[in-house]
Amino acid sequence: MDGELGDFLRSRRARIQPEEVGLPSHGRRRVPGLRREEVAQLAGVSVDYYIRLEQGRGPGGVSDAVLDAIARVLRLDETEHAYLLTVARPHRKSTARPPAGPRIRPGVQLLLDGMERTPAFVLGRRMDVLAWNALGDAVNGFSALAPAERNIPRQVFLDPAAAGFYPDWAAVAAQAVANLRIDAGRHPDDPRMAALVGELSLKSADFRRLWADHEVKECAYGTKRIQHPVAGLLTLPYETLTVPTDPDQTIVAYTPEPDSETAERLALLGSWKATTTATNN
After folding, report:
1. The pTM is what?
2. Distance CA 214, CA 4 (A)
């Protein structure tokens, strides 16, 4: 993950112009943003120390004070700051056998099923879709996908229908990548993450471009628009809740305004889904 730390720091200092932090620009620069020595000066560390840190040769126990100072100079937001702390720490590879796969507690599935009027699903590591309720399936079609295909970034970047499904596809794509990078920082030795990033980079120029931007952002809440093939346009505010017993699992729930057009369309979609399921059974 040392390379990730250097790439992240370089991408963040490239965003900041010297004038923004009270430094002269000294005319035209070969690269955009702050120089490494300028970041070191403003953070109160030696130039050699900062260069070694950016090159992945810094001390393993870099202090919070130093990282906080660098975050202040680079004007990192709360999520970016947390990400810096994560990727700057040495990670010891585990020798334990990896688990067979994520498990959803029965109580979590019961919670989903009890939310009959709320489309909801659970995301795990790498934004894999682990579970859903009936209305969540009616909106997103998870059950129609092979288990290996139930992954949000894979669907956004590799499904040809994604651009039509998401009217705001560019924003959805950027959000998916920014959230995926946070997970990659938390689990730098995850071979399945490396395989996913490699596949998406190979098959999607859009993913390669966004991944190279090193943006990090948690999608805790917001609004997503979906052009559903049956229900039409759905405007879906969403909230996310972390499962207390497994911080790698997140419940995503769509929460449209009561009596709104989207709520009415979801009710019709739920009835259609129930009828279709009963007919097929």
Report:
1. 0.82
2. 9
